[in-house]
Design goal:
This protein is mainly alpha-helical and about 170 residues long. The chain has one domain (about 1-170): Metal-dependent hydrolases (TIM Barrel, Alpha-Beta Barrel), CATH 3.20.20.140. Helices cover about 50% and strands about 10% of the residues. It has nine helices and five strands. The protein has a three-stranded parallel β-sheet with strand order 1-4-5. A two-stranded antiparallel ribbon has the order 2-3. Strand 2 and strand 3 (about 35) form a beta hairpin. Helix 7 packs antiparallel against helix 8. It is globular and about 45 Å long.
Length: about 170
């Protein structure tokens, strides 16, 4: 968290790449109960985007599996979470497979996936009006028929990422 404070205060960071480390400033008080530290409150209250790359975090050993990944905790706490691919070629990942992995691990439905997609657009570097236009004219209408059908998003069809070699295991 100290490096995050420095990035925000001294460098003027407007978003936090690999923002999953903010979880270190969230205390578990019991089942389903969490207390935010000073930095976590600051990040959430100011809607500072957390760029989260779940598959990359697993492939690099930050977390052992998607089920252990804290993205769902951050989403439940209403942080401005965005889902990202990071190193697409090294991780053999796409936005579709990242979203499908979240569906598999946490049971996300279309509404939750829409929320994450809207977060990403709200956090983009486009001018404000263009962001709103994309949300209202593209994202929400795109998800509307999916949500209306009440179906669950399709599962991830990629091989189990836990069976993939970790980054350090592929290095000579």
């Amino acid at each position: 968290p100290r490096s995050i404070w420095k990035a925000l205060q001294f460098c003027g960071a407007e978003r936090l790449g690999h923002g999953i480390r903010i979880i270190e400033d969230v205390a578990a008080d019991g089942p389903g109960e969490r207390t935010l530290g000073r930095l976590a409150h600051y990040m959430r209250d100011r809607r500072i985007p957390l760029e989260v790359c779940p598959t990359s975090n697993i492939n690099t050993g930050v977390f052992a599996s998607m089920a252990e990944h804290p993205i769902d905790t951050l989403v439940d706490l209403r942080f401005r979470v965005t889902v990202n691919t990071d190193n697409r070629l090294m991780s053999n990942v796409s936005m579709t497979s990242e979203m499908a992995a979240l569906v598999d691990a946490f049971g996300y439905g279309w509404a939750r996936l829409r929320w994450l997609t809207v977060n990403a657009m709200k956090s983009s570097f486009l001018p404000f009006r263009e962001r709103l236009q994309m949300i209202e004219a593209v994202i929400k209408p795109g998800y509307a028929p999916l949500e209306a059908a009440r179906g669950r998003p399709p599962p991830d069809t990629r091989p189990d990422p836990n069976l993939s070699p970790r980054l350090e295991e592929t290095q000579p």
